Amino acid sequence: MDSGRYNIFELPRSCQATVIPGGQLMLLEEGEQVVVTQTLGGSATVQTSIGYLVRISPEDSAAFGLAAPVADTVLGDGVPFDMEQVMGRLKNVFDPEIPINVVDLGLIYGCEALLLDDGSYRIDVKMSMTAPGCGMGDVLKNDAQAEVKLVAGVSEADVELVWDPPWSQDRMSDAARLQLGMF
Which of 59, 77, 96, 135 is the most buried (most CB within 10 A)? Predict the structure, then answer.
């Protein structure tokens, strides 16, 4: 499925979903019909029959056949750590409302690698949201942390939500602006 299609889908079983942008949990019932609005980063964003926009977890999205799971394989032993791989993994984290990843949206404010005593790395990420009141912050923070931990040589990852400076559209990549028609 691509992010530009709107398909009606009947849920094969009940599942938890996260209301966008508030971040509250909501139970979607088996047999409920939803409209799929986005399937990026392994999760699905759907509109419920009563109009809520919600995010279905990557696990349930994959089980339902809505979204292919994002590859979670790490490079084998002996492959050197590469910070570009960290940024590549962060590009698997998508805003559930806007079909753009957090890197191209300009939500990544900083990303540092710290060499640990055992030779592995701790990655510290500073990330923001498009709006301070966004309830999806913890969801995207957890997604980012999980993705970073998949990089060869990374044993620890910490993602901190920051609000200064406030996010603005000026932080977006040219590709993101083009995709959203903002030129």
Answer: 96
Which pTM value belongs to this model?
0.85
Question: Under a CB-based contact definition with an 8 Å cutoff, are residues 92 and 147 in contact?
Answer: yes
The tokens 């932080």 sit on which residue? 171
From the list 5, 6, 37, 105, the residue with the least C-alpha distance to 17 is: 37
Radius of gyration over every alpha carbon of the chain, rounded to an integer in angstroms: 17
pLDDT digits (tens, 9 = 90+) for 137-155: 999 999 999 999 999 999 9
- Mind listing the pLDDT tens digit for each residue in 71-107? 655 545 567 889 999 999 999 999 998 889 999 999 9
83-179 is a CATH 3.30.300.130 domain: yes
127: exposed, middle or buried (Cβ count in 10 Å: 0-12, 13-18, 19+): buried
Contacts of 51 (CB under 8 A, 6+ apart): none
CA distance 54 to 74: 30
How far from chain centre, in Å, is Cα 68?
14
Which residue stretches of 12-168 are H helix?
58-63, 83-90, 137-148
Q: Provide the CATH topology of domain 7-63.
A: SH3 type barrels. (2.30.30)
